[in-house]
Amino acid sequence: MRHLTSTGATTPGPTARSATPLDELIETVAFLRAPGGCPWDADQTHESLVQYLVEESWELIEAIESGNRAELIEELGDVLYQVLFHADLAAHTPGEDFDIQDVAAHMTEKMVSRHPHVFGGDRTAETADDVVSFWDELKADEKPHRTSVLDGIPRGMPALALAQKVLGKAEKVGVRVTSASIPDGPEPPATEGELGRTLLALVASARAQGLDAERALRHAVRDLEGQVRSAEERTGEDAESDRPGD
Questions:
Q1: Which of 24, 83, 91, 77 is nearest to 49 (CA)?
Q2: pTM for this structure?
Q3: Is residue 237's pLDDT more than 60?
């Protein structure tokens, strides 16, 4: 529902007295994108909004790390706004035809399915490790088209985050990178502070030599991914050889 201001302009307003601030924000997004709203908002697409989602996500991470409550509220709001914007865009795009309620319903169903140990399923979990151990099984059932532990990893992640993600997946198939792989390196850093200084020193050294640390790490991660896929192929071949003959 749109309401008139004292100047005669229309503004978004709650459809009922019980409307929550979230309801009002959803309506605000719709108002801005509707005919007669903001031309910039109306021109956006899912693709054009990607850069803003990336920026807002990193700003949220910074707010979390700073521990500033006011900034955390603001940055969470900015990320939420991106989600609502994409949902409203989809609601008015032929062939997509879903809205924020569909997104929420899908997420609720997904979370209930992923937590059978909480929502009356046949699983029990006493520790976080117990949960992680069967999440992979649940994901495999949900996404049977994935044939590798590497499937589903976003390729656009920064190299360091990508490396950490791929290392975790690699361990699941028995491929491990240890500190012994560091040529003539010192003992591994014992704290995050030491680790940060070590990484910074490595980047500084690379920069001084004209090397691109981001690109170099991506190349190394690709090599690791090759090892993972080779290990998966060997595992598949072993499984084939263990099967009884016809």
A1: 83
A2: 0.67
A3: no
